[in-house]
Design goal:
Blueprint: E1 3-7, H1 32-41, E2 44-51, H2 62-80, E3 86-90, H3 106-115, E4 123-126, H4 129-138, E5 142-146, E6 163-165
Parallel strand pairs: 1-2, 1-4, 2-3, 4-5, 5-6
C-alpha cells in the first residue's frame, strides 16, 4: 500500500506570514526541501493539507490559492526533483463548521480515498495542535508537531500519539 507524508503549508512548507496568496511572498521553512526529498526517496507521496480561511474571509479567492499552489509545485519540483502528489485546502473558517477544516479529518480522508494511502504507515507534520489532532483522528501513524508561535512548546509534551520537533531536520532521524 502507498504511504504519504502529509504537510501543513503555512509554517511547515513556507514561513507563515498570515494569509499568504502571492508567490513572491513565499519563503521556505529551513529544511523543508530536504525533508521533501528524503521522504520522497523513502517512497512517500507528498500531500499538502492546509486550512485557508482567508478565502471565506474574502481576503483572496480560490483561484489565487490554486495559482499559488501551482507556482509552489513547479518551484519545489525545480528545486528538489519531487512532484507534490496533491495540494488540498479548506476554504472555510472555524465558524463555517465544515468537515474539512483541521482538526477535522476531511482533507486527509479525501487523500486516502483518492490514492489509497496506508494512513498507519504515513506521516503528518504540522505547526498547530489542530494539525496533529487531524492526523491522529484520521489514523495517521506518525504525527509531528513543529515548534511554533501557536502553542507553548514547553507545556506540550511528547505523547504516544505525536512527537514534538524543534526543527524539521530532526524529522530525518525517524
Amino acid at each position: 500500500m502507498k504511504k504519504a507524508l502529509f504537510l501543513d503549508r503555512d509554517g511547515i512548507i513556507n514561513i507563515d506570514t498570515g494569509h499568504l496568496y502571492l508567490f513572491e511572498d513565499v519563503e521556505y521553512v529551513a529544511g523543508i526541501l530536504l525533508v521533501i526529498q528524503e521522504f520522497n526517496n523513502r517512497g512517500y507521496n507528498i500531500v499538502v493539507v492546509t486550512n485557508q480561511a482567508g478565502i471565506s474571509k474574502g481576503l483572496y479567492g480560490i483561484k489565487s490559492v490554486e495559482k499559488l499552489h501551482n507556482l509552489m509545485r513547479e518551484d519545489i519540483l525545480k528545486k528538489t526533483g519531487v512532484e507534490i502528489k496533491d495540494w488540498l485546502f479548506c476554504p472555510h473558517q472555524d465558524s463555517d463548521n465544515c468537515a474539512c477544516r483541521k482538526p477535522k479529518i476531511g482533507m486527509i480522508l479525501r487523500a486516502q480515498e483518492k490514492y489509497q494511502f496506508d494512513l498507519n504507515s504515513s506521516y503528518l507534520i504540522g505547526d498547530k495542535l489542530s494539525d496533529v489532532e487531524a492526523g491522529i483522528s484520521s489514523g495517521v501513524g506518525n504525527c509531528f508537531l513543529l515548534k511554533s508561535e501557536y502553542f507553548d512548546f514547553n507545556t506540550v509534551f511528547n505523547r504516544k500519539n505525536f512527537t514534538r520537533l524543534h526543527n524539521l531536520s530532526e524529522l530525518l532521524t525517524y
